[in-house]
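Hey L., structure's done. Input below.
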Amino acid sequence: MTAGTARTSRPRGPAQLQGIQALRAIAALLVVFGHAAHEAEAIAARIGVPAIDPSFLYWGSGVDIFFVISGFIMVHTSAELFGRPGAWRIFLARRIARIVPLYWLLTSLLLIGSLFVPQLLNVPIGDWQHILASYLFIPSLRGGSEIRPVMALGWTLNFEMFFYLLFAGAMFLPLRRGMAALAVTLLGLALIGMACPTTQVQVAFWTQPMIIEFLFGCLLALAYRHGIRLPPAVAAACVALGLVAMLRLPGIDDPAWLPQFLRLGIPATVIVAGAALNRGDVPRHAWPLVALGNASYSLYLFHPFALRPLRDIWIRFAGASLPLEIYVLVAFAVAALSSVLLYRLVEQPMSTWFRFSAAPRPAPGPMPGTTAT
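Output:
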């Protein structure tokens, strides 16, 4: 990488990856904002004050950013494995060690909580088949109306795991042919979803057009491997313009001719491009985001556990004496702090143990770069 190493006072890692880590924090905080606003709405209804209106922002666009980042990281970290014997096993073992332990732990805590404090749940837990599907990352109907696992936020992980399987299949081929096969597969699935809608739950879920956002990230990683870089000013402009595009702009918002996965997927890709292809250093003021980005997975999964009880605490002790905007700020702080602690005390040790105890060793293969033909 051309950026070099960071100073010891900065978060460790190349500047390119630091920018991606900062984006992970931003993406997670967008989701936290949406859920904090939802909790604030519930507080407003209880205490009889006006609710906060979060509709000015596509806060769900944090997921689109995550998907583009995921595609980028998969190619960036695994490109040299393509075409090697057993590459798919190595890749899946790494991803399972990264994703599964914390998700299964929090899903189990949610199930235990449903037995003792069911009043804290916004929706009821489904039957045993739904629970099993949730653990196995298989899309399943919750309440007969929406495709959500026991932990609702896990719907994005159902997408992630499906993408990992497709990506692992592409690794049987050299990099270029593998990426071409993956692109054809993702585009084909999206076209099926748009042209042939179905009521079959798993097919309907896996053929949603937003799956193409993973491909956008893969293409950015290929651009990075080919040496494409952006001047710092251009990279910063990409991030800024992409974030502005995720606002609901009066008069030009939601054009009928632009599908939703492009409405948010294109800005997400522009944002990730600004971070991933930036040939400069991460600005000093972004360092806290880089640090929080390390805990972004914990932040994404755990923040509902922090916000739901915070709602009751706020109603009891603050009520209408403080504006709900303050509640949102407190929710950000509580979610961030608790997630950093969870990351350091639970997620990181678990992932490290699983990664080193269960991941297979790479098999001998061609020298780096020879698998790209």
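Residues 15-372 form one domain. The CA atoms of residues 44 and 50 lie 6 Å apart.

-- N.
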